[in-house]
Amino acid sequence: MSFHGLGGSGMRGVWEQRRSFGYLEQGGRPTRETVTRLLRVLRPHRGRLALALGLTLFGILLGLVPPLLMRQVIDVAIARKDVGMLVYLAAGLVLFPAAGAVLSVGQSYLNAVVAQGVIHDLRVAMYEHGQKLGIDFFTRTPGGEIHSRLVNDLNAVQQVLGTILTGFFVNVMTIVLTLALMFTLNWQLSLLSMVVLPAFALPVLSFGRRTYDAISRTQESLSHLTAHLEETLTLSGIVVVKSFGTRRREAERMRALSDEVRRNQIAQGMIGRWLGLVFSTMSAVGPALLYGYGGYLVIRGSVQIGTIVAFATYLVQLYSPASSLAGSNTTLLGGLALFDRIFHFLDHPVDVPEPLHAHPLQAVAGVTPVSLTFDGVHFSYRKGEEVLHGISFTASAGELTAIVGPSGAGKSTILSLAARFYDPGEGDVRLLGVPLRDLAEDDLRRLTSVVTQELFLFHQTLDANIRYGRPEATDEDVAAAVQAAQLSELVAQLPEGLRTVVGERGYRLSGGEKQRVAIARAILRNPSLLLLDEATSSLDSHAERLIQQALAELFQGRTVIAIAHRLSTILAADQILVVDQGRIVEQGRHQALLAQGGLYARLYHEQFDTAGPGGEGG
Ligand SMILES: Nc1ncnc2c1ncn2[C@@H]1O[C@H](COP(=O)(O)OP(=O)(O)OP(=O)(O)O)[C@@H](O)[C@H]1O
Ligand SMILES: [Mg+2]
What we know:
- With about 625 residues, this protein is an alpha/beta fold.
- The protein has helices spanning about 10-20, 30-40, 45-80, 85-130, 135-140, 145-185, 185-195, 200-205, 210-230, 235-245, 245-270, 275-300, 305-345, 410-420, 440-445, 460-465, 475-485, 490-495, 510-525, 540-555, 565-570, 590-595, 600-610; strands at about 370-380, 385-395, 400-405, 425-430, 435, 450, 530-535, 560-565, 575-580, 585-590.
- It contains 23 helices and ten strands.
- Bound molecules: adenosine-5'-triphosphate and magnesium ion (MG).
- Adenosine-5'-triphosphate binds near residues 382, 387, 407, 408 and 410.
């Protein structure tokens, strides 16, 4: 196997044919900016970090003492045949390392506290930033990619943070202090010991960038693997895989992706490893020179044996930080690669930002009559592909506005803009006369509720799912919502009633039941503006009647904009907007629109003529 084929062409092949990774793709490079930001992240922890470094420094100083004691043993105590002194020195040879060991426990503790603190801060910051990102970001980024940043990248950071925080400092200080002490003992021998030091600088110069690239590649392949797992080994994905019998194909893809991770990890681990060989040889050259030349000096009588022994000990202390310093440079740059990935995520712009100065809305308890206005709204998901071309209408307070139109006309897009999942490119969407982009997110969400076609239930009890939008609701409120949403029968049948866990995506409920849970959730939330995307799933007439009753309860007294598929909703509407190819082509009430004999009449006849009222769900 070769480690040179790092380009990952195999993996890229697999993934390019599948899809693009969109927003999180990056070709980042380490910059001074990354370092400055890293320092900013460390700032809140500087107190503990300083303490850790102080302890470290003290530990290094303690480590410098034993060789001096050895020298005293050989040159003084033995020479003078002073047994009492020998005992003292031997005790010192135990005590100093022991004290150092105690220190290092405290130091590791502080290191862990700082490193985990930094990681915790970043994790929280990433999660909160992710929450602020627009729906657009999530439609373009596989979920696994996002999770991989929060889990895999932060995990890897943990491994390098120790090196970044104290490793660098420890090694530099050890080298500086050891050299300083050696020079005070004997400058000629010190120079001799230093001869090989520059060799350790070699990898510092040549392997940093390669490590940066290798780590970027490893993390990238890890995120692809995670994305694949999340899509194919979760409830929704596995159902598709099973129903199409594509188990083997997905397993093969997984194998290819995992293999890529394996190769990248090995390659990353092997970078600069052969230099260990050079280091070992180098480390042998130093003592050889020392004993050779030092021995000659002893013979000549200009140096005592104890000094040579002390030097030999210092040499060992000198080379190990030098070689790990050489290694830590690669770790440092690798760490920067990880931080670049994390910062890249944190830098991803929030495309639906909170206003700097939000327009104040008085908090009104209960349902307030609100109107929503679209004023000349143009919108495109991608540059140059406009989906809405100048939509204008007003959903008046307390009225029901139904949107109908062929598939792909832009109905869901209008609803998404009303919910401010996106901002319009041109024109305004106004709630109570205030553009949505000038409203505080909390105000907007307090007033509105969105009920989508596809209901997502959290893996919690039915009760918790219904309360999701209003956790403080009383049991009576929940019971009332359950009743209004025609769920009482279902709740009575469930093994543990409202306390039944409804499972990931609410898989244990039928489609019609889930719709009613969504309605109960919205009723409990009691929004002033309800945005509803009616599910199109066909239901038997009993289930359909239950939903119609539940909806009637939900519509009561609110401003509602509904993408309507039910005749009952359409007939109840105060105004119907007929949308086609991003424009409102007809507008009015059912009878008038039907009489016009236009698109509405055609759609109506196509959809409802054969089935008749009540059985129109198909
Ligand atoms: N996230 C998106 N990115 C890019 N284009 C999109 C996105 N969502 C929708 N579109 C496109 O915008 C157009 C309008 O889509 P929209 O979902 O609003 O239609 P719709 O009227 O709700 O259709 P349906 O009745 O089938 O739900 C379609 O051409 C669709 O392909
Ligand atoms: Mg739609």
